[in-house]
Design brief:
With 286 residues, the protein is of the alpha/beta class. It contains 10 helices and 9 strands.
C-alpha cells in the first residue's frame, strides 16, 4: 500500500506510532522499502522493524514506573544525573536491540536524521539557538515543515542503518539523532557535534527516495489546521499524513508516567482502526 514511511520525532509521544502500526501494518501488508526517521521516531521505527515494538512499550512502562520523576533534584548534591532520560533511553536500546540488528538491516532501508549547526555557530550557543528554534516551531508556528533552522544554516543529514557495522553503531546513531541537552549529553557523530535531527525538521521527509511512490507519514502531535488523515501530491509522489485524532495525554520528555504511555499507545491503535475503516472499500464508499 505504501512504498515509503516517515516517522516523525516526538519523544514519548512516538508510542502513538507503535499503536498505529500494530493496528494497521499486517492488515494492509505494510512493507516499505524506505523508512525515514528522526529522534525517538528513529528508535521506534527500529524496534518496529525488529519486531520488538510491544516489548518496548512494556519495558518503558516498567522503567517509567521505577523512575517516578523527570527531575532528580537530589542529584544536585550527588554524582548522579539530574535528568534520568538518557540513562533510560540508552539502557532501553541496549536491552531491546539485542538479537534484532540483523533483522532490522534485512527488513528495509532505515535512514536516520541528525542535525548539524551552522559554521558561524559553535558549541553551547548553537544548542541554545537550536532549542529556541525547536520551541518556536513546536508552539508558535505549528507548521508541518518549518524552515527556520535551514534559513539560519542548520543542516539535516541522513545516515543509513545498513552502514552501521554493529548494534553499537546503531545505538550511537539514534542517540545522535535524539541529542537534546540538558535531557541528554552532547553528542558527536563521525567527529562532528550533532543536535537532535528534529531541530531542522521533525517530520524528516528529506530522507525519502525521489520518484513515483506512495508515502505514509506518521506524525506524533496534533496540527489542528489539518484533519486526522490527509493526502497531498508532491511531484510524482502521493503523501498521506496521519496524525493523532486528539492531543496525546503525554509530553515529549515525560519519563515518569506509565499510564499515559499506554494511553498514547491505545490512542494510536484506535486511530489505526479509524484509518482502516476510512480506507477500506466499504469506508471509502461512504
Amino acid at each position: 500500500m505504501f512504498d515509503q514511511v516517515v516517522f516523525a520525532g516526538g519523544g514519548v509521544r512516538c508510542t502513538w506510532q507503535i499503536g498505529f502500526w500494530e493496528s494497521v501494518a499486517n492488515r494492509v501488508r505494510l512493507r516499505p522499502k524506505i523508512v525515514s526517521a528522526v529522534s525517538a521516531g528513529a528508535m521506534v521505527s527500529s524496534l518496529i522493524l525488529m519486531g520488538k515494538s510491544l516489548d518496548a512499550v512494556e519495558y518503558f512502562a516498567e522503567a517509567f514506573e521505577e523512575n517516578g520523576s523527570n527531575i532528580h533534584w537530589g542529584n544536585l548534591f550527588r554524582k548522579g544525573p539530574l535528568f534520568p532520560h538518557h540513562h533510560i533511553y540508552r539502557n532501553g536500546m541496549r536491552r531491546l536491540f539485542e538479537g534484532g540488528f540483523e533483522r532490522l538491516r534485512a527488513a528495509t532501508e532505515l535512514r536516520i536524521a541528525v542535525s548539524h549547526s551552522p559554521q558561524w555557530l559553535n558549541g553551547r550557543l548553537a544548542l541554545i539557538i537550536g532549542a529556541g528554534i525547536d520551541y518556536s516551531d513546536t508552539f508558535l508556528t505549528r507548521e508541518l515543515h518549518p524552515n527556520t533552522a535551514r534559513r539560519l544554516g542548520y543542516q539535516q543529514s541522513f545516515y543509513s542503518v545498513r552502514d552501521c557495522s554493529n548494534v553499537g553503531d546503531l545505538q550511537r546513531l539514534i542517540l545522535s539523532s535524539s541529542c537534546t541537552p540538558p535531557f541528554t549529553p552532547r553528542q558527536q557523530h563521525r567527529g562532528a557535534e550533532v543536535l537532535d535531527g528534529g531541530i531542522v525538521d521533525s517530520v524528516p521527509v528529506a530522507g525519502l527516495d525521489p520518484g513515483p511512490s506512495r508515502v505514509l507519514i506518521l506524525l506524533t502531535r496534533r496540527y489542528p489546521q489539518y484533519p486526522s488523515c490527509f493526502t497531498c501530491q508532491k511531484g510524482e509522489q502521493l503523501w498521506t499524513y496521519v496524525q493523532p485524532s486528539r492531543p496525546l495525554p503525554v509530553s515529549v520528555w515525560d519519563f515518569s508516567n506509565p499510564q499515559r504511555l499506554w494511553q498514547a499507545f491505545d490512542a494510536g491503535f484506535a486511530d489505526g482502526e479509524a484509518f482502516l475503516a476510512a480506507h477500506s472499500p466499504e469506508g471509502s464508499a461512504k
